Amino acid sequence: MERLQKVMAHAGVASRRKCEDLITQGVVTVNGKTVTELGYKVSTQDRIEVNGVPISKEAPVYYLFYKPRGVISAVSDDKGRPVVTDYFTDVPERIYPVGRLDYDTSGLLLLTNDGEFSQRLTHPKYELDKVYVAKVKGIADKYNLRPIAYGMKLDGKKTAPARYEILSVDETKGSSVVSLTIHEGRYHQVKRMFEACGLPVQKLCREQYGFLTLQGLRPGQYRALTPKEVKKLMAETKR
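== Pseudouridine synthase ==
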C-alpha cells in the first residue's frame, strides 16, 4: 500500500505537490469514491481517476534533453508556441520537464514521469550544481563580478555564493563569455545576477546539471538517462 499522491506522481500525473493539490480539490476518486485525504493509501488493484480520467501506472522514464532557444519548458502553451514535449512524439509515456529553462535560454533540461524524482531535484534544500555559460554585454572582470562570489541581494534575499570563470573577452565588440555555477533556482536568477553586475545577458545556455552534461547532443536532441545516472542523482539529493 502506498499513499495516493505518490502513486499519482509515479504515474506521471504531476509532481507530488501538485497531486496533493488535486486531491484536496476533490477531483480524485478511488474506486468511484472521491478522496480528499492526503494520507489515503491505495493498492495496485485500486482504480484511480483524476477528473474522471483513469491514471495509467506507467513505468518511470527519465530523459536528458538539449532544449533549443525559443521553446517553452512546459507540456502545452496557450499561445501555440513550441514546447519541450514536441520533441518527444515517439515517447508513449506522459512526461513533463523537471524545473524549467527560460524561453530564450538553451541547454540541459530533464524530463520524466516520476513525480518523486522531479520533486527531489527541484526542492531548494538539495544543492545540485548547475553550470551556465553566458554571453554578456560588457567587459567582465574580477571587480564587476565580485558580488557573484560573495552573494548579492535579489528581491531582498541574498543569493548563495557562486563560482564564475571568465572564458573570453572581446574588447572590440564589448562583450564577454562567462561560466557561472550556482545551486539555487530562483526566477531568472542567472540573468538577474549578471544584470546586477552591469553585464546584461545576450545569450545563455545551461551546460551542466549535477554531474550530467550535454556531451553528444545537439539542440533538439535527447537521450534516456541510464539507471546508474538516475540512482546517482537521487543519491546526491540525500546528501
